[in-house]
Each structure stands twice: as C-alpha cells, then as structure tokens.
C-alpha cells in the first residue's frame, strides 16, 4: 500500500524506531471484531473467536465473515465494530455510575451509540445525532435493530444542539470527523486522500465542533474526545487546547499493561492511543475530560408533546399487550403512528418534540393505523421490550430468513393462521408479515432489504450458544 511521503516522514518522527513496526502492521490484514447485544445475545459467543480485553461483550473473529447473510446480524443480536473503539467502555464504566442524559454527537453509523445503549446505567437517556441526513438514516436503522427504548435519534448541526439544549447532558461522546490515518489499512482510499492541509482542516473543525457543543454539557459533566488518527494536531494538541480554553480537567482511565495502549506523545496528559503494531485493532485515540463546575444556565425542557394533525385516535386495547413492561410506558399518536414512550423520560421527549431540532425517532413506534387496520412496525419487532406472546410466531429456517430479509415472498407453514405474524430466526425476531391464507405480504422495510444476489453455499455460523462452546 503506498502511503503519502509526508505522512511517512511525520509519523516516523513521531514514533522513532517503532515506525517500521507500524508500517509492517499496516501491510497486514485488519482484524475483524464484533460486539454482542447483552439484552439479546447474552448467552451467545463466536464459534471461533477471542475476547476483546477491554470490552465485556467484544470478540475478535478468525476472519471476515459474510455478515450480510447472517439473520442474527439483522436482528440486532450483534454489531460489527472495530475493537479499538470498544475502549469507550472503560471510560464510561469508570466514571458514569448513575443514570445520566448522554449525547453521542457524531454518531453514524451507530457503533458507539449501540455500545453506549448497553453500557449506560439503567434509567439513562441516550440522544444520538448525525448531521449528514443520509448517514442519519443508517444511524436510525442500527439504533432500531439494537432495540433499546431509551434512545432518541437527531439530525442536526452541533451548534443547533448546543444552542437548544444548554446544560442538559451529563455525558457527551464526540467521536470526531478526522483525517482517518488510523483506518488506512481498512480504507485504501483514505490514504490516497491524506494531506497536511486536510489534517489542519480536521483539527480546526474538531475545535469548532467542541466549541459548538460545549454549552450542552452540564457543569461537572464528562466529554469523551476521540478520533481514528495518529497525528498530535488532531489528538493531544486539541485536548491541550480544550484544557487551556475551557478549563477542562483530563481524567485518567485504568488500563492493563498487557493491552499495550500508548500514552501521550506530546503534552503531559492522560490520553489513550491505539497503534496496530502494539494493540490488536486499528488506530484510535481517546481522552476523557470533565467540565469545571459552575453556574451556567441550563435550559428547562417543556413537558408534553405537540399535538400533530387531526384529533388523536383512541389507543387500541391490544397495544398494551405489545410490550413486556407496558406499565412503564405512555402511549401517544404521532399522526397515524402509535408510539410508546418511557414514562421516566416524558420531560425530555416533550422538550425535544417542542424544540426546533429534527427528531428522526424517539420511543418505540408500535405501528401505523391504515383505515381500520393496525399494522405493527419493525421498531416493535426488534425492540427488547417486545412481548412475543402478543403475536402469532413462526420460526424460519435460514433459507426463508434470507428470503424475508430480501423482501421476497415465500410460503409460511401449512396451517398458519391468517393475520399478522412475527417471524423469527433461532428465536430472535426479524420482523412482521401479514398472512392472507394463500399468500403472505412481506412487511420488512424496503430500504433495509438485502440487495446482493449472491448466496453463500451454507449459512454463516458466527454465534453459537455458549454452553456448546
């Protein structure tokens, strides 16, 4: 792989005698790793894999596998994520010990959001945001698949959030857009696009983003600053700038020596850098900062949701059976869509709903009323709060599961009753279909469907029951 001369010169100066080891590592294949959803696949482990030492549910796999053709991937049982990024777990578990309101600022495609959903103490609210509209749709899809009810998806510029939600969040995770040096061996194009001008542009943009979002962080709250690059301009120098500009306090995160994480290469501050010649993963940098205590004004969120459209329909009685803990939720119509909101966050839901922010999803969409027919939604099917006893259930073999995920039609078992059917694979919900007797309507979202016509000769065996390991 050809690397830019200036990148080689600068990084050799940064690492000294270690640079040749880094260069050799960049010529090797990247590791593949996944993180299991603890509320869906807690008893599952990879058939062939090793633990990621800094992540309780993280695993290295033996190689790149055809995840597209594993229905458990589409069911949100696991997420394919780079192992170094899973180090976020150590920062959160060390310092976040009570329920918080957390913002994942630059969240697409959803790796850190789904990780945070699993990590944050029970009773926390997670707001995730992506400024690019096309990427925000991917974020919303992955959040839906993960299935946690305490997550809100936004599509806003950081400045809009900082101005609207002043002092709201006890934790902000900012995995910032960067020059991508740490991803060179996974993305050859990023190496070809690298330049010092882009490094300087990224470093400046990162400072602007933190400036814009800083007001939304509550005094005494935590900011996770991370990038996937090596240079000090985007890493230590920006952390040092935040310390000088905002009085932020850098915090140490306990690490094990055998993790072989590298500390600061410039300035004396606790920072954590992953090099692929030392740690098993791609390039990554993380620092944890605490905002000084003070008397900054916090916005007061308005309770209650806006009325939308015509007079609200009555709540269908069966809706209360859809969720396993229905008493924890309030039910409300959003146009023709019925949503369930955790009662403990009604102030936040109402405040976001009444704000100028673009809320792409919040709560659990239970379904849509069309005429006299209530159509259950994909959100409900994949929610960890789903009560499967509320629906007729059909378990699919792998071949039919792939047909379903391609949004194709196939025959349900003879004798299946008419109506809405919850389709599962190995006991995990995939979505709904409507059985009409002589045929079925596939209700899988068209924009999520598997588009590849390729089909492996046999089903991928990625996760197995741990007791059979």
Query: If you average the pLDDT, what whole number results?
Result: 94
**In oligomeric terms, what are we looking at?**
single chain
How much helical structure, as a percent, in the residues? 25-40%
Distance between the termini: 38 Å
Number of helices: 13
What's the main sheet like?
Answer: 9 strands, mixed
Mass-distribution shape: globular
Rg for CA atoms = 23 Å
Number of strands: 23
Structural class by helix and strand composition: alpha+beta
Low-confidence segments, given as residue ranges, are none
The amount of beta strand, in percent, is: 15-25%
Would you give an account of this structure?
- The chain has 13 helices and 23 strands.
- It is of the alpha+beta class.
- Strands 6, 7, 8, 9, 10, 11, 12, 13 and 16 form a nine-stranded mixed beta sheet that branches. Strands 3-4-1-5 form a four-stranded antiparallel beta sheet, with helices on one face. The protein has a four-stranded antiparallel beta sheet with strand order 14-15-17-18.
- Helix 4 (88-95) runs parallel beside helix 5 and helix 7 (158-164) runs parallel beside helix 9.
- The two termini are 38 Å apart.
């Amino acid at each position: 792989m050809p690397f830019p001369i200036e990148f080689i010169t600068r990084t050799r100066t940064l690492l000294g005698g270690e640079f040749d080891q880094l260069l050799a590592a960049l010529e090797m294949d990247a590791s593949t790793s996944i993180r299991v959803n603890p509320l869906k696949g807690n008893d599952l482990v990879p058939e062939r894999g090793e633990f990621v030492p800094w992540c309780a549910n993280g695993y290295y796999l033996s190689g790149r596998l055809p995840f597209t053709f594993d229905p458990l991937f589409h069911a949100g049982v696991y997420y394919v994520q780079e192992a170094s990024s899973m180090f976020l777990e150590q920062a959160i578990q060390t310092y976040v010990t009570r329920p918080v309101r957390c913002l994942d600022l630059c969240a697409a495609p959803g790796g850190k959001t789904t990780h945070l959903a699993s990590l944050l103490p029970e009773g926390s609210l997670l707001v995730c945001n992506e400024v690019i509209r096309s990427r925000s749709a991917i974020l919303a899809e992955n959040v839906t698949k993960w299935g946690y009810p305490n997550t809100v998806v936004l599509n806003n510029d950081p400045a809009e959030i900082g101005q609207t939600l002043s002092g709201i969040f006890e934790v902000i995770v900012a995995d910032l857009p960067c020059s991508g040096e740490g991803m060179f061996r996974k993305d050859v194009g990023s190496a070809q696009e690298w330049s010092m001008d882009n490094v300087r542009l990224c470093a400046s943009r990162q400072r602007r983003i933190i400036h814009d979002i800083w007001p939304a962080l509550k005094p005494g709250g935590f900011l996770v600053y991370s990038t996937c690059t090596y240079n000090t301009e985007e890493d230590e120098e920006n952390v040092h700038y935040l310390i000088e500009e905002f009085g932020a306090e850098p915090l140490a995160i306990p690490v094990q020596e055998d993790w072989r994480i590298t500390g600061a290469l410039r300035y004396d501050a606790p920072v954590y850098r992953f090099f692929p010649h030392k740690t098993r993963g791609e390039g990554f940098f993380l620092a944890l900062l605490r905002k000084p205590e003070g008397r900054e004004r916090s916005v007061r969120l308005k309770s209650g949701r806006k009325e939308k459209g015509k007079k609200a329909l009555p709540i269908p009685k069966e809706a209360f059976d859809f969720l396993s803990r229905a008493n924890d939720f309030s039910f409300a119509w959003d146009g023709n869509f019925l949503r369930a909101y955790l009662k403990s966050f009604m102030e936040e839901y109402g405040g976001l709903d009444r704000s100028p922010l673009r809320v792409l999803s919040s709560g659990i969409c239970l379904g849509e009323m069309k005429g006299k027919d209530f159509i259950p939604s994909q959100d409900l099917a994949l929610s960890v709060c789903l009560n499967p006893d509320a629906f007729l259930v059909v378990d699919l073999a792998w071949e039919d599961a792939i047909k379903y995920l391609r949004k194709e039609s196939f025959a349900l078992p003879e004798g299946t009753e008419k109506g809405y059917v919850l389709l599962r694979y190995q006991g995990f919900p995939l979505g709904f279909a409507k059985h009409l007797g002589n045929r079925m309507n596939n209700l899988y979202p068209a924009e999520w469907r598997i588009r590849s016509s390729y089909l492996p000769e046999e089903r991928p065996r990625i996760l197995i029951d741990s007791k059979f390991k």
